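Exam review. A common question shows you a sequence with its structure tokens and asks you to describe the fold in words. Practice with the pair below. Do the first one on your own.
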Amino acid sequence: LKILDCRDWQNTLPEKMTNAVYTEEELLQRIGNNKRINPAYKNNIPLDERILRHIEFIFKAIEIESSRTTSDKMLEYNGKIYEALTDSSKKLLENTLDKTYSITQLEKYAKCPFKYFADNILRLNVSKELEEGITPIEKGSILHEVLFQFYINRRKQNLPPLFECNEDEFNEAVKNLIDLTRTRLDSLETTDLLYFLEKELILGVGNRKGIIQEFLEAEKKRKLNVVPAYFEVAFGSRVGSANLTDPELSKKEPVLVGNIKVRGKIDRVEVGDEFFSVVDYKTGSKFDDFADIESGLALQLPIYLFAVEKILSEQNKQLKPAAAIYYGLKIPVTEKVALANSELKNKAYIHTQKQAAVLENETELRQIITKSISYVNEYVKSISKGEFQITTQEKMKKACNYCSFDMICRKQNRNSLDD
């Protein structure tokens, strides 16, 4: 500073320099910001064709983001894609009205239409992380399989319900189910340490009871007017191996739910003289609650009640739906009433306390079933119209857990339409 004549521009640049652009990145930022502030802004600067293409892309992106704050512009970027499709693609969507749906697919759409679009329409490939030990899906599959074999064998042998067994008969049943499960687990042929820990949790070790024994002890306490009668009851195609479906009640054709064909597999159907219940085995820690059923997020159990009543009637068995129950296959083994008729408490299900899921009478139960049927038809109609919006803020807690598409759905930029 002593030997040079200079001006200090560290704090304030002269006006001619603040208006100058020195790099391509600065140029694009300046033009993009001008467009964002003034939607009518147009670039009149003569530039290289490559940079002009970048600017065109920026203007388009700004227009798209702006459209997400309204409900009537560029609807294809708000999840309503029908009008932007070719005629052949429109026809493909319209044909979805005639498809056969699983309950899982419909619940996926209910929670997040965009997730359904990415997974079931675009069929995007997802790279899944490798899991050590027995994965939750494998564990659930194994337990479903051995329980199916256990109960089918008891039915063939005409053995009594577990709550009618004496101590020796019950111990024999425990031994039988543990042997079936051990044989199935041993077939996995793995030396993974976590596998052995999971195996002990299922079978028990020493004086510590496993899931199998806890489950059977819970079964022995269920002295009801219904007994386990049918297992892995399948309706429709693509519902698993025929060797693991109940031949006495399953059917190859889907069940017509309103105007929609639905397929599924019901873990267990319990039958009494005048009514029946459905049971869904769960190996996870979370069960859907009544609010989910009532709002159309959880369709499985009410639709299963509808399907079983329909299938039974086709066999001239006129039984009424009584209850839908979650059975938690984990320690401790738990039972949760998801939907039930209060008039049949302690007959079709174990009643512990007043719950929202326990309805006053059969009429109210059927109203919930009818409501679920209307949701099924509403969702498929929306699919056929190309409506695949990102889920609402309210549903994100349930829809976004463990989602494979949460990095591409732009939920962080969720528009304010539902605010």
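Now try the second one, then compare your answer with the model answer below.
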Amino acid sequence: MTNLTGLALDLAAAGVLLTAWGSLTRRRIDSLITLYSIQSTAIGAVTFLLAYLSTNAELYLIAGITVGVNVIWIPALLRRARVDLAVSSDTDSVLSVRLSALAGFGLLLLSVFVIAPLVPFSAVPSAGLLPIAVTVVLVGFFMIVTRRRALTQVLGLLTMANGVFLSGLAVTLGLGLALELGVAANLLVLAIVARLFLYRIQESFDTVDADTLRLLEG
């Protein structure tokens, strides 16, 4: 690994981590969608750089699919869904920006404390990405728990999917073309189902606010 390539990989990984943390400090859905797109771009860059370092042609294809699906198609679909459903631009979080930011920092420390000691035992050079990947998964789950609007919870689920994808790269330097294509296909299905599901909720209850929908449970 050259110094320049290693620096580029570190910067891309830092971009993934910063966008995950930034997602907890944003109060606008459009900003969250933009951060998801930037995060996916950084993951695409990580994949491309790992393809270059490992001379794995399959990873080049996966990097291209990541950009096409996660960076372009899914964000466009989510923005269209927000407009069509007339969803308020506010994420309606149960926590303040400060508490959310502190929670994100705590999740990072937890990941580093638990996962980082295992990294030296891995023979894969990309294993250093694993604490970041686990942090992204935890941040996505945290978004699902603390955001009231269904659309922001979908973004949390997509963030978790990014973290799982990055974990696969970190642990095995790519899971093989078939499995990676399966991940991409699952993301496509997830986005389509999420859009249809949100439309159905809006059509039936005239809202996609999770707290309002919980009042209907009884």
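Model answer, second protein: The chain is about 75% helix and 0% strand. The mean pLDDT is 78. Full marks require stating both points clearly.
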